Amino acid sequence: MTAVVKCDLGPRYSGVSPTTHRKLSAITTQPQFVRLKGGANTGEGRVEIYYNRQWGTVCGQSWDVKQASVVCRELGYGSARSAPKGAQFGQGHGPVWLDHVVCTGNELSIVDCAHSNFSATSCTHDNDASVQCNVPDLKVKEKIRLSGGRNPREGRVEIQRGRKWGMVCSNSWTYKEAGVACRQLGMGYALHALKEVWYFEGDKLDFVMADLECDGTEEALHFCRYKSWTNKECRSHQVAGIICTQARLPDLVPDASQVRTSIYLEDRPLYLLYCAAEENCLASSAYQMEWPYGSRRLLRFTQAVANFGKADFRPNIDSSQWIWHQCHAHYHSMEIFTQYDLLSENGTKVAEGHKASFCLEDSHCYDGYEPKYDCNVGEQGISMGCDDTYKHSLDCQWIDITGVPSGTYTLEVIINPLRSVAEMDFENNRISCKINYNGYQVVANECHLGEDELLNSIY
């Protein structure tokens, strides 16, 4: 008497087949309170729980495949094939919500398992729990290929529609789309999202996919939004390409609390702003003034950026190409390291600033990690397990808000805004704060990472 079973696709994959181009449904139609972060492939990553309006992690103590399988099934995958501990997909931030998790294996959610009270733990993020889930084979890897690259992990992106192959226009091509393509190929993270691939040889194909936009969670480019399939060439002949990597990457995370607690106003005389003006750290109206008379109103704050990834964060160009700035006596190793924007209530940008990587270095390191980079000695970077802090008193650590009327605004701080250096996760690179400005005083409230906005707006 042989037992026989037949399995159907779960709700996450309902209606999806190798020949249909439907977007995965479950995770996009309703908020999820458990998610995976930092993984290169579908169904893997650090486990995070949303509780008390904040994302936190799960301690790896007592973590095994039984607990991991509950998470995998909750997210719509199969059982777990492994349950990595020790922050194998990078360290999380915020609280460690769950500790001493023990499951029977029948629970519908990881929060239904026995565990210590939320946040009642001495566990640290260097022991964050992760999962690698069994995932249905949708044959999506057969629908994409690379051509013209120097090795199998790079080239022009080509996708299949029916029995024909086409290219992807790069007018809306970003790291999100490139990450989906690398995931679909099973080639890890996106190292570069290429918008021009004329140096990659390839045949002229039958069609192009135009105006492609992904949210970054899709398992294939076919599940992303796109405007049309056409037999015309891409505008300006810009065709998408990628370079993928299986190597470990950094993951920068800014500290929202530092911005909230340090923010203040300063009316700074122009005669103290010559160096800042040289480095374009002032609003355009400043350059129309009669120097050195007058002053500028500056919104100042401290910025701390931690590297919770699995590799050091290094500038995207070699040190021989860094630009020396005599006024501040330092090298700029990146064109823009941070972008600051002040937005009105309707989202209009009313003021902006930027900060080149004056001096990427290890200002502070967490337990178990040692500082490696000191820009006064030579090399610049942020080591794994360390952070780089720019104090509010430093030049260009501000937004020039001269002439901005009083009101309620949103301050956005975006790290690595051009995405010129690859990271494990770009969704945690933005801070958003509500700013109340009455003309002579400023207060920041509700500062949080930008990735938390959707759930906070619903709940």
UniProtKB/TrEMBL annotation:
Where in or outside the cell?
Secreted, Extracellular space
Q: Which domain of life is it from?
A: Eukaryota
SRCR domain: which residues? 34-134, 144-245
Q: Which GO terms describe its molecular function?
A: copper ion binding; protein-lysine 6-oxidase activity
Please give the cofactor(s) recorded in the UniProt entry for this protein. Answer: Cu cation
Q: What is its EC number?
A: 1.4.3.13
Provide the reaction this enzyme catalyses.
Answer: L-lysyl-[protein] + O2 + H2O = (S)-2-amino-6-oxohexanoyl-[protein] + H2O2 + NH4(+)
State the PROSITE patterns in the record: LYSYL_OXIDASE, SRCR_1, SRCR_2
UniProt keyword annotations, A-Z: Copper, Disulfide bond, Glycoprotein, LTQ, Metal-binding, Oxidoreductase, Repeat, Secreted, Signal, TPQ
What's a single GO BP term from this record? Answer: collagen fibril organization
Which GO cellular component terms, listed alphabetically, does the Swiss-Prot or TrEMBL entry include?
A: extracellular space; membrane
Q: List the disulfide bonds.
A: 59-123, 72-133, 103-113, 214-224
Pfam families xrefs: Lysyl_oxidase (PF01186), SRCR (PF00530)
| Signal sequence, renumbered to the chain | none
- InterPro entries this protein is in? LOX-like_protein, Lysyl_oxidase, Lysyl_oxidase_CS, SRCR, SRCR-like_dom_sf
The family annotation for this protein states: Belongs to the lysyl oxidase family.
Q: What is this protein called?
A: protein-lysine 6-oxidase
**Coding gene?**
LOXL3
